[in-house]
Amino acid sequence: MSIYLSSRLRTLTPYVPGEQPVIPGLIKLNTNENPFAPSEKALEEARRSVRPFNLYSDPDSGELNRSIASLLGLKENNIISTNGSDEILNFCFMAFCDDDHPAIFPDITYGFYKVFAQINGVPYKEIPLKDDWSIDPGDYIGSGGTVFIANPNAPTGKVLELEDIKRIIEGNKGNMVIIDEAYIDFGGESAVSLIDTYDNLIVTRTFSKSRSMAGARLGFGAANENIINDLDTVRFSTNPYNVNSFTQALGIAVLNDEEYTRSNISKIIETRDRTVKELRKLGFTAPDSYTNFIFAGHPLIDGAVLYEKLREKGILVRHFGTERIKDFNRISVGTDDQMDILLNELTKILAEEK
Fold it and tell me: Could you report the per-residue pLDDT of 175-208, keeping only the tens digit for each?
C-alpha cells in the first residue's frame, strides 16, 4: 500500500475472484463458468456484424437492449446493458444507497456486495441466513434500506419463491429491492415478471453463466423506465462506452441462438442433479441446487483440506473461510467427464481418510 492511497480506502478488503491459473490438464470447477463455449453459429454472426473497432461502441447498446427486452417480454427502455452484472450491481450501490438508505443483504451471499458498500462509502447491514442457509423473507420487511438478494443465492444454491420476493418488495415501499438473478436460468422463478407491477424493483442478470460469455463481460439490469434513467445517469457519468462492440455483437448473436443455450442449460442441470446424487452416496451433505454449482461438505474431512487435496490432483473448486460454511466447498458443474473424474478422485480421498 502506498502513502498516496485515499484514507477511506485503506481499510478496504477487496473482492477475491476465483483463481484463473493456466495449468495443463486442470479441471476448473471454481468460478461457475459454463463448460460449453458459445456456438459457432453465434461466433460467426458476431464476427460478421461487429461494429468497426476504430469506432466507439454504441453507448446505448440499442440493438442489444432490444434483443434482451424481446427475450424477456419487456420494452427496450426497461433494459440497461453493462460490463458484466458486477457493473450493474455497483451502479445500484452508487445510485440507491447512502447514509439514509443503507445496503441490506444476507451474511452469506455474493462477496462483492460488502465490497461495493465499502468502496462507495455506504453503511450496510448483513442479515444472518437461517440454520438451513435459507433466507427468511420476514427479516427484510421494513428493512429501512436498499435490499440486495441473490436468487438463487451463492454459494448455497438456495432459492426464494416468487411469492416471498413479492413480500420483500411490498414490505420495502420507499426503498429499492435488487434481485440478482445470475443463476436463475438453472432453477427458480424470475422476478422479471414483476417489473411492470413494482417501481422499486431491479432485476440483474449476467451472460457469464447460462450464456457462456464469462470472458466477454456482459450483464444487464431490468426495471421500470424511471429507474433505468437513474442508472443511465450513473453510467454516463462514469463509463458511457461500457459495453465494447464485440461483446454487444456476440450478446445479440447468442440471443439469436437460444435453442443452443437452452440445450446447454438442460445438460448442466442433468449433470448437476446426477452429481448431487453421487455425492450423497459418498456421504456428502449437498443441498438441492438451483444453480450451475453444488455446495457440498463431508463429515470425515475438513473443507479446506479437501480443497487442497483436490487441487493437488488437478481439480480446482472454491473454498470459503467464513465460519458458517468453512466445512463446505462450492463445485461448479462441468462436463459429464469432468464430474466423473471429480467423483472418482473424491472416492479415493475419502478412502484414504477412513
Answer: 999 999 999 999 999 999 999 999 999 999 999 9
279 and 235 in a single domain? The answer is: no
Pick from 152, 175, 155, 174: nearest CA to 164: 152
Angle CA(224)–CA(149)–CA(169) in degrees, nearest 5? 50
Q: Which of 15-19, 187-191, 303-307 has the lowest mean pLDDT?
A: 15-19
The alpha carbon dihedral of 196, 197, 198, 202 has a sign of negative
* 75 phi, psi to nearest 5 deg: -105, 160
Distance CA 204, CA 26 (A): 31
Q: Which amino acid type is present at position 215?
A: G
Q: What is the pTM of this model?
A: 0.96
CB 57 within 8 A of CB 51: yes
Residue 2 lies inside a defined structural domain of this protein: no
Cα separation of 98 and 71, whole Å? Answer: 34
Q: Which residues in 245-279 are b (16+ Cβ under 10 Å) and which e?
A: bbbbbbbbbbbebeebbeebbeebbebbeebbebb
Residue 66 belongs to a domain: yes
- The answer to whether residues 206 and 140 belong to one domain is yes
Q: Are strands 201-206 and 177-180 parallel, antiparallel or unpaired?
A: parallel
Number of domains in the chain: 2
- Which of 88, 80, 89 is CA-nearest to residue 61? 80
Taking alpha carbons only, the member of 87, 142, 139 closest to residue 116 is 87
Phi/psi of residue 298, nearest 5 degrees: -130, 140
CATH number for the domain that contains residue 30: 3.90.1150.10
Which of 246, 267, 8, 25 has its CA nearest to residue 119?
8
Residue identified by cell 438508505 is: 101
What residue type is 147 in one-letter code? Answer: V
Residue 179 carries which side chain, given as an amino acid letter? I
